[in-house]
Amino acid sequence: MRIISALVLLLLSMTAAAQQSYLVDWDEIGEEAIQHFVELIRIDSSNPPGNETEVAEYVKSVLAAEGIESELYALDPTRANLVARIRGNGKKRPILIMGHTDVVGVQPEKWYADPFSGLREDGFIYGRGTLDDKDNVAAGMMVVMMLKRFGVELDRDIIFLAESGEEGTPEVGINFMVAEHYDAIDAEYCIAEGGQNVIEDDVVTRVGIETTEKMPRRVTLVARGTPGHGSRPTLQNAVAILANAIAKASAWQTEVRLNDTTRSYFQRLAEISAPEDAWRYLNVENPEESDAIQQYFLETFPYHYSISRTSVVPTVIDAGFRKNVIPSEASAILDIRMLPDENVEDFYAELAAVIDDPRVEIVPEHIYRPAAPPSEIDNEMFQTLERVALRMYPDATVLPTMSTGATDMAQVRAMGMQAYGIGPARSVAEMNSGFGAHGDNERIEEEAFVELVKYLWNVVIEMSATG
Length: 467
Ligand SMILES: [Zn+2]
Fold this sequence. Notes:
The protein is of the alpha/beta class. The chain is about 40% helix and about 20% strand. The chain contains 17 helices and 20 strands. Zinc ion binds near residues 100 and 132.
């Protein structure tokens, strides 16, 4: 158990009347949730190929045993999405709980345990998907089962979507659901992955709630020159032209710009930081200090650099095929992550001006995540997420966060849903250990998983239970 003071327990009993009307035995529910979670991890749904239908079938059978109907929606029969709906009285618009059923691949030889065994050891559960994102799938499934089991009267429908294809193939998952079956998932709010809580000295000190994310808008730079013999220098060498363009693009200091989420993030972080750091967080937008602060972020904590601006990072170079041949063409990929409000075409035009070389063509990638404004941090949902977090973790600071990565929330935000990413708590040591999402030996603390279920349950009840 995390440390909770007596005073807070008292407050809890006064303010949490809604939860108290459902007497949840969390030892029992927690163990049941873990059992299902382990079963989900045991299904290898590595994407590619995905094989998410097997996960969807498992969820369907568990829900059916509870008397909950669900429906499969599949563009590709092996990659089904599942939707279940617990009906309310319709006073309020629905909440969508979303989790993705695919996982990234593994190099099993680098794992301590079989990545699809769901090994439970020393309070941890090991396996691909334990943090990304079968924890949210299992938590969502458990919460809808509990709503049904306890006969909770609801002011709104609660929709559960177990979706396929999040790891790089949204066309079979969220894009398909949005384009073809939006009526099945349409909601006012969405809760999904992307948040993270931090444990220091066995106490949860930070609760991160993802309210927005950067837009992946990569480009390929294609440099063209004159082919020739490597023994004869030329001013039209595609490799040199490309190298020069990459150097300029990576050195480019793009505009520093905050939004409601990142501004609030830095302000709240300042309140719990040492004076020097606090000063930096409060001066991110100060034009006099910005350059030095950004340099400091870049050297010490690149996340803060990245959330302050659109970032341009070279990741792939493809040039040349023989040591004595000057190739006619050379190319590189720039992984560009834009701020949510960036004007994409204007940014590409600026990039062209920075590179300033007509021999270099900028070829944008196919857009697979739509642009969307950040979700609000002053509405009923964010306030509830915050209130419940502070009740469960009285020593914590709640931080709205912007992910530098990308999730399927981009698609539902683009449809107008207010979407929030939550996640399990991890200790600082654990976060620095490499046991994280997409890493070898991905693992989650059993207690943190159960608390994720509890958090989701509390939020859903407070947002939706009648009375
Ligand atoms: Zn994920």
